[in-house]
Specification:
Oligomer: single chain
Low-confidence stretches: none
Radius of gyration: 20 Å
Order of helices and strands: HEHEHEHHEEHEHEHEEHEEHEHHEHH
CATH superfamily of the largest domain: Spore Coat Polysaccharide Biosynthesis Protein SpsA, Chain A
Largest sheet: 7 strands, mixed
Structural class: alpha/beta
Mean pLDDT: 95
């Protein structure tokens, strides 16, 4: 019987044939959880505030195509004047994988592959669904820096995994808001970009998405911003939501990410979409009720609240939110402030 890793290698050994001449500029890849369209609304709102110079197209790539999602996209994109928008779907087999396996890491990788296959530009930007860009020239500068320095890719943070630095591989960059040369991405086989167990310099390790190709790329071609660009990144929100969906019984929301999802739904989405995340009343019950579907019981959870609250306040204080949205976030988080601050 074939190992799962071999199946990925067999079926993802080559890219779709690229166009003969790529268009100078970049494409935004919006990797969206298909059953959380609030993040589609947010991504469009955030990116619409960016200087559109050099932006050619925006691709919306949901990890699963839920009934009603295309219609919401058609509604939301009316307020997105910065570029044409195209919906990119996973193929039927991939949609079955994301629906029934529901592994956030596989979902994300498949979304990235479909996005790259659909890109017509020389560069692309991987936009993280839970990241809020504050400075309006960020994407313009990001592209220009990547182009002028002839970088394979340009990121904004160190990888979360310190193993690479311990091995002397200090050049790697995290994937969120990664601007990359499409030819560089395509110079590796699609399966090589998947998060997987592999070997580098004779040592075994579990690679995150794109990390093996980054390890195999000359360090001078990988860039990380040294400037402190203003953005708010909550990190791993979609992963937490997927693990919540797969869980049974009580789920400890130890970094308050499900709370964030509910707050953002209340602030941004008036579409009437039915979400699986409990409402605020249900979440508040989890502060004291150990049997609640979502709980906030552990001491470790309490220790994480200041970081979450600091990021939320930075978002509230930014110019990304109008008074109504800011007020909804402030009122929604108040019961948690009373307990955890």
């Amino acid at each position: 019987m074939l190992k799962k890793s071999m199946i990925w290698k067999i079926f993802y050994s080559q890219w779709k044939k690229s166009i003969s001449k790529s268009i100078p500029g970049y494409t935004i890849l919006m990797l969206i959880p298909g059953d959380l369209p609030v993040f589609l609304k947010i991504a469009l709102d955030v990116c619409a505030r960016q200087n559109p110079e050099h932006l050619i197209e925006t691709l919306v790539i949901p990890d699963k195509l839920i009934s009603g999602f295309p219609e919401l996209l058609n509604t939301f994109k009316q307020d997105y004047p910065v570029s044409p928008i195209r919906l990119v779907k996973l193929n039927p087999v991939e949609q079955l994988i994301t629906r029934y396996q529901n592994n956030p890491h596989i979902n994300c990788w498949l979304q990235m592959l479909r996005g790259v296959n659909a890109v017509n530009t020389t560069h692309a930007l991987w936009h993280d669904a839970d990241l809020f860009l504050i400075e309006s020239d960020f994407l313009k500068s990001h592209y220009q820096t990547c182009l002028e320095k002839r970088l394979a890719c340009l990121g904004v943070n160190e990888p979360w995994d310190s193993w690479y630095r311990e091995q002397g591989m200090n050049h790697l960059t995290a994937t969120w808001e990664l601007m990359f040369d499409v030819n560089w991405i395509r110079s590796f086989k699609p399966w090589q970009h998947r998060g997987h167990d592999g070997i580098i310099t004779g040592k075994s390790h579990t690679f995150d998405i794109t990390f093996l190709p980054q390890c195999l790329t000359p360090p001078e071609r990988i860039g990380k911003y040294q400037d402190d660009w203003e953005f708010v990144h909550f990190n791993y929100v979609i992963c937490t939501y997927r693990w919540f969906q797969k869980s049974k019984g009580s789920f400890e929301d130890d970094n308050f990410r499900l709370l964030l999802v509910r707050l953002l739904i209340n602030a941004y989405d008036q579409s009437g979409w039915v979400y699986e995340v409990p409402d605020l009343v249900g979440l508040v019950k989890g502060i004291t009720d150990k049997s609640n579907r979502v709980t906030y019981i552990k001491e470790e959870t309490r220790q994480h609240y200041p970081e979450f609250r600091s990021k939320l306040q930075k978002l509230i204080d930014s110019e990304l939110l109008d008074d109504e949205k800011a007020g909804i976030l402030i009122e929604g988080v108040r019961p948690f402030d009373q307990i955890f601050l």
